[in-house]
Amino acid sequence: MKKKIAGINKARLVEVERLLQGTITETSCATCQKTLKELTRPIITSFSDMFSEQMDLVSRLTEIGLALSGETRLERLLEMIVDEARVLTNADAGTLYVVDKDNRKLEFSILQNDTMKVRMGGTSGNEITLPPVPLYTAGNKPNKSHVSAYCALTGETVNIADVYKAEGFDFTGPRKYDEATGYNSKSMLVLALKNHEQDIIGVLQLLNALDDNGEVVEFSSDVVDIVGSLASQAAIALTNAQLIQGLKDLLYSVIQSIAAAIDAKSPYTNGHIERVVILTMMIAEKVNSTDSGKYAHQRFSRDELEELKLAAWMHDVGKISIPEHVVDKSTKLETIYDRAELVDNRFKLIAELVKNKQLTETIEVLSNCPDPEKISEIKKRYAVDLEQLESDRLFIASCNVPNEYMSDERIERVYDIAGRTYESEGKALNWLTADELENLCIRKGTLTNRERKIIESHAAITLEMLSRLPFPKRLTHVPEYAAGHHEKPDGSGYPKGLAGDDLPLQARIMAVADIFEALTAKDRPYKKPMKLTQAIKILGFMKKDGHIDPDVYDLFLDSELYMEYAKEQLDPSQLDDE
User: Fold this and answer.
1) Cβ distance 107 to 98 under 8 Å?
2) Backbone dihedral region of 461: left (phi > 0), alpha (psi from -120 to 50 degrees) or beta?
3) Is the pLDDT reported for residue 123 higher than 50?
4) Rounded Cα–Cα distance for residues 442 and 405 (Å)
5) Does residue 121 come out as left (phi exceeding 0), alpha (psi in the -120 to 50 range) or beta?
6) How high is the pLDDT of residue 47?
7) Which member of 75, 126, 229, 317 has the greatest number of CB atoms within 10 A?
8) Which residue did the predictor score with more confidence, 314 or 195?
9) pLDDT in the model for residue 72
10) What residue segments make up the domains of the chain, in order of their start?
11) What's the fold here for domain 265-322+450-574?
12) If we measure between CA atoms, which residue out of 204, 190, 188, 189 comes closest to residue 237?
């Protein structure tokens, strides 16, 4: 701006002044007007250009402010701050430091250098491995020798024309960098980023301002003011992003703590939720990357992926209300304890009663008229009874363990045993109680219909619990997806019996993940670790029966996601699909 004003001819300014003061007569009015226009045109043009530049700058700063305030991803925001500051100052390089939570050091967040073609931190995918800059020395004294630390400690802006000629700061770092890379650090501008409470939360360092010819020059005072304005906007945006990120971190921490508590209720399901999250996101990301087939045009947004991930973390939250002895029921007779021992002792008691009857009959024969043949007959008869009783005891014990499918013949034998009675304290009691009979006759697994309904209720409880939480708009479907992992495409699932288009893709994905994890889990009490091929075969049957989404299954199988997961999570003995 100053250069443009200085470039206006001073003689013209004098002429304009004379005209305005009326030193030229009215008779030459027309000539005066023409001369005035000619004399003032360069001045008006110059001021117009300057005003236009100022308006462009204000507009640009406004756009930057809106862009910064609208970005909630912390890593992208940090990158944008350096990008925009370098554009405004035409700086060749830039570094952004963020003050750590203890206010003891500056951590590198973004590092850019066009000449060296370096972009690190942010969304670049290149991690910064440089050590943080300490704000205090070993003696707990302020570290004012390092320019970025000095700026963070004092809040002062530092503008250096040439780091090799500057005094008062230690520039060993930049000089070592120059020696190692061949770069030539020269002009430097360092500014503090202050939040609304005037706390310094970061430091922006710009290096080597370039003129129109690409030569390194000092950062001008006008540029310092502009970048200062940008720094203020950036600090506000950064504070907001950090608050949002902090809330996200808190939310995930709470959710993961709840998930860990649910898993901890059972030593057999520990890690189940986390593995379902892993599988769910593997499938979702594969959907996003596939270029053919059913999902060629299906893409989950960043918010939708986060929504699905949260739902996966919370899909079993309803199990908080399910009794552990139902969730962990490893044998058919198990409740708070395994009643198998009680039944076994009862059979042993019955055996002792049989022996007592044998002894009573033997004594009666001996007391009346000793007859060796009758005594031998009694002994043989009771030996057969005791042998059959022992066989029944072992059979009942085998029924308690869910390794063998309960056929009609086995169930009929259990009923026959249960119908027998023995006498205790003058009362006739059945060998098995009604509840024991019901549990021992479970055809597959360990759960009765009543207990299965109790476990199935966790999906409805999950929906009820999560529906009470005030999820933000972008996460409103978390309760629906979390509760829908037991729904089936044919409508036979629970809790709502959804089918067809009413069943969201996210819930279908989570269903496959949940079932596959349960099938292949190596720590279930009621089954041995399943081979990988057997798990895939069962999923295939479920696809055929309409119990899982066929397209999700095909994607899971064809992309070999199952094998990728298996190699990371399963026991090597389960991998039989090589």
Assistant:
1) yes
2) alpha
3) yes
4) 9
5) left
6) 47
7) 317
8) 314
9) 62
10) 2-53, 71-245, 265-322+450-574, 340-446
11) Hypothetical protein af1432 (1.10.3210)
12) 204
Burial class of residue 81 in the structure, from the number of CB atoms within 10 Å of its CB (0-12 exposed, 13-18 middle, 19+ buried):
buried
Q: How far apart are CA 84 and CA 180, in angstroms?
A: 28
d(CA 163, CA 190): 12
Please list the residues that pair with 189 across neighbouring strands: 159, 206
| Mean of pLDDT values over 130-143 | 90
| Mean pLDDT for the chain overall | 85
Nearest alpha-carbon partner for 204 in 161, 135, 148: 148
Six-digit token string for 186: 């020269």
**221: pLDDT strictly greater than 60:** yes
Q: CA 567 → CA 142, 552, 564, 576, 577, distances in Å?
A: 51, 20, 6, 11, 11
245 half-sphere exposure, CB direction, 13 A CA radius: 14
Look at residue 378 and tell me whether its pLDDT is greater than 70: yes
pLDDT tens digits, 411-455: 999 999 999 999 888 899 999 999 999 999 999 889 999 999 999
Residue 495, preceding bond cis, omega within 30 degrees?
yes
pLDDT score of 239: 79
222, HSE (Cβ side, Cα atoms, 13 Å) = 8
Residue ranges in 182-329 assigned as alpha helix (H): 221-264, 272-289, 302-314, 324-327
CB of 233 within 8 A of CB of 195?
Answer: no
Region class of 198: left (phi > 0), else alpha (psi between -120 and 50), else beta:
left
Q: What percent of the chain shows pLDDT beyond 70?
A: 85
Statement: 71-245 belongs to CATH 3.30.450.40: yes
Residue 90 corresponds to which amino acid? N
What predicted TM-score, i.e. pTM, was given to this entire model? 0.66
**Residue 105, SS3 per DSSP:** strand
State residue 3's pLDDT score.
Answer: 44
CB crowding 162-188: b at 16 or more within 10 Å, else e: ebeeeeebebeebeebbeeeebebbbb
